[in-house]
Amino acid sequence: MEITIEGASIHDLNRLYEIEMKCFKKEAFTKQQIAFLLTNYNSIGLVAKVNNQIVGFIIGRLYAERKSLVGHILTLDISPTYRQKGIAQRLLQEMEKIFGEKGVKACCLEVREDNIAALNLYQKLGYRKVGKLKNYYENAHGIYLRKTLT
Q: Taking the chain (150 residues) in consecutive chunks of 10 residues, what is each chunk's mean pLDDT?
């Protein structure tokens, strides 16, 4: 299975929203929020394709924190039938590479505390737990993770 990673575009909005809903249901970003992120100057979106079909995506954002740039992963979604195939890891590593090229010193993200598969992936890639986010999700706590990129 050949996976290609490329920049996301507003033209991908319907497919990205469809995947977002499958992944996060009630906690999903709205179509308008995804559209905003895809067109925002400080955001970076990437899609993963298999056989020229989008099967996953990641959206990250840059912001300044204490005079240095930080990357924030806002969402990482893989279509359920394509999970456990290394696609999330490829997307995350590509995003970290882009962040690094832009001078980002650290990358952070939030994850549900009961999302064991995602937690395992993030920890395998060097993310460390910084704190617990009480009631961050509608009915679950979140965990704030951070990784130093430089």
A: 94 96 87 95 96 96 88 95 94 96 94 89 95 76 90
Residue 6 and residue 8: Cα distance in Å, rounded?
6
pTM (predicted TM-score): 0.92
Kindly report the number of other CB atoms within 10 A of residue 101's CB atom.
8
The rounded distance, in Å, linking the Cα atoms of 9 and 138 is: 29
HSE of 42 in the Cβ direction (CA atoms, 13 Å)? 11
Phi then psi for 94, rounded to 5 degrees?
-65, -40
Which has the closest alpha carbon to 19: 75, 73, 61? 75
- 3 state SS of 42: coil
